[in-house]
Design goal:
The protein has one domain. The protein has 1 helix and no strands.
């Protein structure tokens, strides 16, 4: 059975992975919001690469 030090290290590692995921999600969200804003300003013109995209989100890897 792992000791307190090992468990704390494992929890710190998990916390860092969660922080990294949150950072990536925040950057993705900001980029998507910027893209949507730009697309709305362009009006009816095309919006590559999302012209053929479906309405369903793609799950994160």
């Amino acid at each position: 059975m792992p000791g307190l030090q090992e468990r704390a290290a494992a929890m710190r590692s998990r916390l860092q992975r969660l922080d990294d995921q949150l950072d990536r999600l925040a950057r993705s969200r900001d980029a998507l919001a910027d893209y949507i804003d730009a697309a709305e300003r362009m009006g009816g013109r095309t919006h590559p690469p999302f012209d053929d995209a479906g309405p369903e989100p793609v799950p994160a890897a």
